Amino acid sequence: MSVLYRTVRARTRVEQTIERSRFIATIAPVESREEADSFLASIRAEFRDATHNVPAMVIGQKGELEWASDDGEPQGTSGPPVLKLLVSRGLTNVVIVITRYFGGIKLGTGGLVRAYSGTAQMALEAAGITEVCDVASFTCTCDYASYSRIQSKLPEDALMSGQSYAADVRFRIDCLPEREEQILALLKDLSGGSVRITERQVEQRPFG
User: Fold this and answer.
1) What confidence tens digit (pLDDT) does each residue in 46-65 have?
2) What pLDDT digit, counting tens, does each position of 160-169 carry?
3) Cβ within 8 Å of residue 59, ≥6 positions away
4) Which is nearest to 197 in space by CA: 158, 132, 155?
């Protein structure tokens, strides 16, 4: 499998309290700077009364864009450490905003770095990491007897989903592009050539 990049699995939010300050991390996978900026704007609007909304993002299949802001915290104590964490984990197409409601106790430079980095680490663990690759998808239609044979003989690297049952069975098969020809040949063999293949496409997304 040719992995294009690693990112977080899903949009996730975590929260912890440190010395009476609330730290709320919201993290999400994105596909462009525009999508990341829209995400950041939505978090700032949601937490407009917060003391700080500290963002960090890495964008591009090779992580071409790296950006972070301290959003009013002492320079280098919040956004940059979070960005460094994302880069060190080999992640891209990801954006995170850590919201802080100041609780009245100053944490100091080291304390801020630990608080923001630790909250970001919590968000990564909760969101999970996934590998994005090219995935070939195609829709199949066949009779019930052929479907039963296909279902029982389908290899583990071909994923079936979206079944609908009428006069015939309709379902989707996902596989890696390099396996597509072999999978299609197997489907035709198991159905005696009667399976109908439609709506073929290749998408960049997690597989498996």
Assistant:
1) 999 999 999 999 999 999 99
2) 999 999 999 9
3) 30, 32, 33, 36, 65, 67, 92, 93, 95
4) 158
